[in-house]
Amino acid sequence: MTKRVVLAYSGGVDTTACIPYLRHEMGADHIVAMAADLGQGDELEPLRRKALEAGADDAVVVDVKDRFVREFGIPAIQANALYDGHYPLSSALGRPLIGELLVETARLHGCNAVSHGCTGKGNDQVRLDLTVGLLNSDLEILAPAREWSFSRAETIAYSEKHGIAPHVTQEKPWAIDLNILGRNVEAGLIEDLTWEPTEEVWSLTTAPEAAPDTPAHVTVGFAHGVPVSVDGEELAPLVLLGRLNSLAGSHGVGRVDMLENRVVGVKSRELYEVPGMLLLIRAHQELENLTLPADVLHQKRQLEAVWSKAVYDGLWHGPLREALDGFVRPTQRNVTGEITLKLYKGGMSVAARSSARAMYRQELVTYGDGCTFDQSSAEGFIDLFGLPSRVWNHVSR
């Protein structure tokens, strides 16, 4: 049977080596390299040409930048998604969309198999395999990097043997994943936990010590939990995120260096640059503090960790994430207002808050004139609030 394969192509070391490997080692007759434009910038056309030069029969770029931000980025902001409290899922959110595109491209090009360059100890294999399997279980999944036993240097050498010049060197074998939500860097010297990243590793952010000496203030407006404006100017989500990436990054905001708990059970060191997403999540969290009741807020904070882990684990298309969205969506009804953040040399702090739907009421909390809080009710409240504990102490003697 003819094996027609659509490959999720990023232009990196592994996916580039996948093209000759699929052809020569796995018997692919026709290879379509599919690159998803998730906001990588101007590198997509050279990447398409690179796929053809590497031996692909066809190469396509699918522009899904706006879809990515609207359908994946905004729900993550509304869920305040931070895996292990640090990582705003910039790469993880792209995988279910890439999986959807693999299935769509396979149908358009008459392919009976899909492929990716994920390794056997990474997260992305789980995310892509699960997505494809859930959307079209008839497609065969080929994963060359799970089959070969190459080191990173040997993978580069394999590509060179087939006449391919990788975009990295054996001296700087960074593995980079870039989209509009952020940038991930791993492998090479990063695997040495005693190595402090040098500036050549970073791209989207200025070193905090080299950032401007004057702080910047930025006001983000939200409507029902969706970011809609910057400094009073209404912007489409994609444009808004791009602007905040640039602004926050120029002030050194958005660097994450973390030990990450991978789906397959190992710990890895990952570097992320996520200036816009971290800024938006911080602003959104503060607006929720202003507009949500305490019980809803506390419950949501617990479920946010569950939402983040479900997406990180590759279960975007599973029932848990859908059910959690059913909780998150109605909580956003009153999350409307503006938050002003102060950016200074890698730091972010809240400078001002405003919302017509704020639960903060100065007349209730003030100790000055005009206080409407009835302090005489406090004694009875304390009596009832402490009643269960007093009963427990009595019966436990």
Textual characterization of the structure:
- With 397 residues, the protein is α/β, with parallel strands linked by helices.
- It has three domains: 4-173, Rossmann fold; 179-354, Argininosuccinate synthetase, chain A, domain 2 (Alpha-Beta Complex); 363-395.
- It has 14 helices and 14 strands.
- The protein has helices at 13-24, 44-53, 65-78, 94-108, 124-135, 144-147, 152-161, 237-250, 275-291, 294-312, 319-331, 362-365, 378-385, 387-395, and strands at residues 4-8, 30-37, 58-63, 113-115, 140-142, 175-179, 182-186, 216-223, 226-230, 233-234, 255-261, 267-273, 337-344, 347-354.
- The strands form three sheets. A five-stranded parallel beta sheet has the order 3-2-1-4-5, sandwiched between helices. The chain has a five-stranded antiparallel beta sheet with strand order 10-9-8-13-14.
- A hairpin with a 2-residue loop joins strand 6 and strand 7.
- Helix 10 (294-312) packs antiparallel against helix 11 (319-331).
- The radius of gyration is 25 Å and the shape is elongated.
- The model has no long low-confidence stretch (mean pLDDT 91).
Offer a quick outline of the entry:
The chain has 397 residues and is α/β, with parallel strands linked by helices. The protein has 14 helices and 14 strands.
